[in-house]
Amino acid sequence: MNRYLLVTVVAVLFVSGCASSQPDMYSWGPYEDSLFAVYHEPEFKEEVLNEYMKFIRADDHERRVAPGLYAEAGTFMLNQGDVASAIEFYRMEYERWPESQPMLGTLIDNLEERN
Amino acid sequence: MAREPADAWHLDRQPGGAELKLIRVFSVVLLAVLASGCATKEAYDLGTFHSTQPKSILVVPPINRSTDVQATTSVLATLPYYLGEKGYYVFPVNTVKTLLEHEGYYEPAEIHAAPPEQLAGLFHADAILYVTVHEWTSKYVLLATTTEVDLGYKLVAADGTVLWKERQEATYSPNSNSGGGLAGLVVNAIAAAAERASPNYLPLTRRAHAMAIISPVERLKHTDALAYALSKKPEAQTEEGIPPGPDHPAHEAYYKNIESGEADESESGDDSAQAGRKSG
Fold first, then answer.
1. In this structure, is residue A94 part of a structural domain?
2. What residues of A are in contact with residue B233 (Cβ under 8 Å)?
3. Is residue B90 less than 8 Å (CB to CB) from chain A?
4. What distance in Å separates residue A85's CA from the closest CA in chain B?
5. What is the chain A residue with the closest CA to B218?
6. Range name among B4-8, B201-205, B225-229, B237-241 with the lowest pLDDT average
7. A102 in a domain, yes or no?
8. In CATH, what number is assigned to the domain containing residue A58?
9. B261 to chain A, minimum CA–CA distance in Å?
10. Which of A26, B124, B148, B248 is 20 to 30 A from B266 via CA?
11. Do B202 and A71 count as a contact with CB atoms less than 8 A apart?
12. ipTM above 0.90, yes or no
């Protein structure tokens, strides 16, 4: 029984060690849960969005924040009527992801005119 | 909030005694040997993909042919991870949906029918990913609930050329590996009832995306960590799924491989290898 246990422990350590040696490129936070809550779980929406914004605003990300996530924060803020914050987050996406610039450039300009 | 029931493929959630774990270790080793050896699925011919090399992907709201309203959200919420980690810029799906509505596009069917050049032009996207949910059902039979999804993927370039297509089914049964006996039966029944009450689709959609989009070896990373650790990790991913995107570490090696492969073929005068085409 001890022999089996030893092999199992070694195997588990091996797995957990190796699984963490191929980490994700990006930090995704509670992104997926946030989208799901926004669309389908109104009772959790506020709580989950707060968690998402906390994640976005944190300054200790282990990895780069994933593509699109700053922009999504902007859209969440826009939907809450906070145009200033929306612009702030769209700018963050704009600066970090060149592919987003055509789309967000126009959006930011329009919002700044409004504001 | 714990919304994820223990599921059938997370290694760290396997119950059972040490002996069961040992048997599992051996069977997983065997699986790794098999998995690293064979590619049984036919891959889409990536010739056009290789010459287009899109950098950014626009994911539009999926068409839903099922009766479950949560299907499209689940798909939309879980796709960015797989495409992003594959090295592509993924346009923010909720922002895109909002902007499309602003442009008058409320129905996925309208969006899928719109000219790709027009959609891609709105965002300056290199490619558009259209997903169709063909099936999304939970079947409750005896003491087991099986949730099945069937997703169709189609990636087109901004000019409308098809780059990649895939059709992927995935099924999910909670606790299918739990220990036997009466206790196991009761656990299964409770899990099955809970699954029927509010099927949790996110793990299942992730599994479908993992199977469709990423290569066999990478797939193991998400479904079987030990097999992944034991498998040979290729420098360049080939065969199934989408090629690595510009931000992916394997991107350069992958395309070098393609180029040298083409150089060899043009020297010998062969046609390029004909992989089977999968209809979506």
1. yes
2. 22
3. yes
4. 15
5. A22
6. B4-8
7. yes
8. 1.25.40.10
9. 28
10. B248
11. no
12. no
Give the chain B residue whose CA is nearest to the CA of A11. B25
Q: Could you tell me which of B176, B215, B163 has the C-alpha nearest to residue B57? A: B163
Judged by DSSP in three states, B132 sits in strand
Range of the domain at A84: 25-114
Q: Write the single-letter amino acid at B257.
A: N
Give the gap in angstroms from C-alpha B124 to the nearest C-alpha of chain A.
6
Q: Is the pLDDT of residue A78 over 80?
A: yes
B11 neighbors B225 (Cβ within 8 angstroms): yes
Residue whose pair of structure tokens reads 């963490």 in the numeric block: A20
Q: Are A111 and A83 in contact (CB under 8 A)?
A: yes
Task: Answer whether residue A32 is part of any domain.
Answer: yes
Whether residue B81 and residue A93 make contact (CB cut-off 8 A), yes or no, is: no
Q: Which residues of B234-256 are buried (b: 16+ CB within 10 A; e: fewer)?
A: bebbbebbbbbbebbebbeebbe
**Angle at the Cα of A99 from the Cα atoms of A96 and A100, rounded to 5 degrees:** 70
Q: Given the structure tokens 């191929």, which residue do they identify?
A: A22
| A8 contacts chain B (CB < 8 A) | yes
**Chain B contact for A74 (CB, 8 A cutoff):** yes
pLDDT in tens, B88-110: 999 999 999 999 999 999 999 99
Nearest CA in chain A to B57: A99
Query: Can you tell me the distance from the alpha carbon of A13 to that of A7, in angstroms, rounded to the nearest whole number?
Result: 10
Instruction: Select from A17, A40, A74 the Cβ nearest to the Cβ of B73.
Output: A40
Strands B56-59 and B89-90: parallel
Residue A29, domain member (yes or no): yes
- Measured at the alpha carbon of residue A104, what is the angle toward residues A101 and A110, in degrees to the nearest 5? 135
> What is the total count of domains within chain A?
1
Question: Which of residues A42 and B18 earns the better pLDDT score?
Answer: A42
